[in-house]
Amino acid sequence: MNRDRFEGGVRHLRGRAKTAVGAVSGDPGRQFDGAIDQAAGAAQHAYGRARDTAQVWRRDGEHLIDEASARGRAIADEAASRGRHYRDRAEHHGRHAARRADENKGATLAIVAAAAFGLGWLLSGDR
């Protein structure tokens, strides 16, 4: 509860008391002042409630931002971890392919020559 809610409630009660005293004493001026204080107190109390609600929404919004940020960091960390994993696998397979090509130089040369011939034939316009 903030100050506006408290002061608005007190002002509203004072206005009710003034209105009651004015009604009992037959003083319409006091009744009118009491009604004004009642309305002003109710408005101030409503403003205080709106401020409290806005603070709750802000706090909830900050919580959601913190949660989204934490989830984003977790996703980024997971993506980096997977990226390292796939890079390591690609390096391993690349080393393995290079080792096999080095062990089988004749077959590798024949495959590269066939691929170059086929690519040259596909790209030439004289078919």
TrEMBL record:
<keyword id="KW-0812">Transmembrane</keyword>
<feature type="region of interest" description="Disordered">
    <location>
        <begin position="78"/>
        <end position="102"/>
    </location>
</feature>
<dbReference type="Pfam" id="PF05532">
    <property type="entry name" value="CsbD"/>
</dbReference>
<feature type="domain" description="CsbD-like">
    <location>
        <begin position="4"/>
        <end position="54"/>
    </location>
</feature>
<keyword id="KW-0472">Membrane</keyword>
<comment type="similarity">
    <text>Belongs to the UPF0337 (CsbD) family.</text>
</comment>
<feature type="compositionally biased region" description="Basic residues">
    <location>
        <begin position="82"/>
        <end position="98"/>
    </location>
</feature>
<dbReference type="InterPro" id="IPR050423">
    <property type="entry name" value="UPF0337_stress_rsp"/>
</dbReference>
<feature type="transmembrane region" description="Helical">
    <location>
        <begin position="106"/>
        <end position="124"/>
    </location>
</feature>
<protein>
    <recommendedName>
        <fullName>CsbD-like domain-containing protein</fullName>
    </recommendedName>
</protein>
<dbReference type="InterPro" id="IPR008462">
    <property type="entry name" value="CsbD"/>
</dbReference>
<dbReference type="InterPro" id="IPR036629">
    <property type="entry name" value="YjbJ_sf"/>
</dbReference>
<keyword id="KW-1133">Transmembrane helix</keyword>
